[in-house]
């Protein structure tokens, strides 16, 4: 039960070894597109909830949830470090599940999901970018995942 | 769709093509790409001034005014933010970020037209 030095070591190691490259190059394009979606989804959800929430509370709460996911994804993609990487993966996965589930529900249960959200009909209202974005995001995050044990892998540029 | 939309459609598409081609050719943001985005900003400013004139001369828009102005102000911020960002990292990828501005602006202009009429 004595405090062990390896604990501190593992804490400091990622900072020293991992040169984060998620928020440069193609990552910037990804962040930019996510930012646009975060802004537009937030504005749309805010507008729907403030003006016509009673028409379809479920759909508009979903809109708000989608907006939150985009905001979290944008911020976490732009931040360096291992924790933000995990947040990114979680946010992008939630986004992928959300667009698939809501997309399917909007087709098969159109009675309960008649109102538009970002994810309705797999994001058709947004040229299917909401469906494409999480897939590209996961590919990108996988390619730039923080290395587990080899320090040299952390600084490779490809 | 009014003239403002078609101006932004033309300028936005042109800007997107210029920036995307520059990105594909592996160039960092240069005068051509940044000026093309500046042209998008100018087109949006024309829309802003025109809309202020129309509203102050008593014209009523069909949709929610604050939704219209929200779109317009957001659209005006995008080119500035993208150019600032492209200066921070001068790689081909910043040109793709710049390329996104034109398309986004024209989608938003289409939406603004829908709100107005």
3D architecture notes:
- The complex is a heterodimer of chains A (about 160) and B (about 120).
- Chain A has helices at about 5-15, 25-50, 55-80, 80-110, 130-145, 150-155.
- Chain A is mostly helical.
- The longest helix of chain A has 27 residues, at about 25-50.
- Residues about 1-20 and about 150-158 of chain A have low confidence and may be disordered.
- Chain B has one domain.
- Helix content of chain B is about 85%, strand content about 0%.
- Chain B is built from four helices and no strands.
- In chain B, α2 packs antiparallel against α3 (about 65-90).
- The mean pLDDT of chain B is about 90.
- Chains A and B meet through α2 of A and α3 and α4 of B.
Give a short summary of the structure.
The complex is a heterodimer of chains A (158) and B (117). Chain A is an all-alpha fold and 158 residues long. Chain A has one domain (21-146).
SS summary, helix count of chain B: 4
- Approximately how much helix is present in the residues of chain A? 55-70%
User: What pattern of helices and strands is seen along the backbone of chain A?
Assistant: HHHHHH
Counted beta strands of chain A: 0
Q: Number of domains in the coordinates of chain B?
A: 1
Largest sheet of chain A: none
Write down the Rg of chain A. 19 Å
In which range does the helix fraction of chain B lie?
A: over 70%
Q: Characterize the overall form of chain A.
A: elongated
Low-confidence stretches of chain B: none
Largest interface: A-B, 14 and 15 residues
Structural class of chain A: mainly alpha
How far apart are the termini of chain B?
8 Å
Q: Tell me the fraction of residues in β-strands of chain A, as a range.
A: under 5%
* Oligomer category: heterodimer
Structural class of chain B: mainly alpha
Overall mean pLDDT of chain A stands at 78
Q: Which geometry of chain B do the CA atoms define?
A: elongated
């Amino acid at each position: 039960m004595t405090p062990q030095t390896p604990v501190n070591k593992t804490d400091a190691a990622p900072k020293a070894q991992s040169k984060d490259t998620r928020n440069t190059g193609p990552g910037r394009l990804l962040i930019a597109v996510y930012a646009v979606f975060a802004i537009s989804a937030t504005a749309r959800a805010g507008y729907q909830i403030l003006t016509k929430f009673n028409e379809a509370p479920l759909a508009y709460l979903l809109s708000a949830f989608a907006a939150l996911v985009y905001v979290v994804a944008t911020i976490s993609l732009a931040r360096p470090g291992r924790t933000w990487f995990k947040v990114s993966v979680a946010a992008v996965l939630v986004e992928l599940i959300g667009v698939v589930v809501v997309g399917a529900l909007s087709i098969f249960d159109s009675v309960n999901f008649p109102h538009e959200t970002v994810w309705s009909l797999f994001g058709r209202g947004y040229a299917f970018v909401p469906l494409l974005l999480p897939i590209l995001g996961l590919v990108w995050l996988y390619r730039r995942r923080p290395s587990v044990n080899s320090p040299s892998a952390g600084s490779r540029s490809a | 769709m009014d003239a403002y939309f078609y101006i932004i459609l033309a300028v936005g598409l042109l800007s997107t093509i210029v920036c995307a081609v520059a990105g594909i050719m592996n160039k960092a943001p240069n005068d051509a790409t940044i000026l093309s985005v500046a042209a998008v900003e100018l087109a949006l400013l024309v829309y802003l001034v025109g809309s202020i004139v129309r509203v102050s001369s008593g014209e009523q828009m069909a949709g929610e005014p604050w939704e219209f102005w929200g779109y317009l102000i957001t659209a005006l911020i995008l080119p500035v933010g993208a150019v600032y960002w492209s200066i921070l990292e001068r790689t081909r990828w910043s040109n793709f970020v710049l390329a996104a501005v034109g398309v986004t602006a024209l989608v938003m202009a289409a939406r603004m037209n829908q709100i107005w009429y």
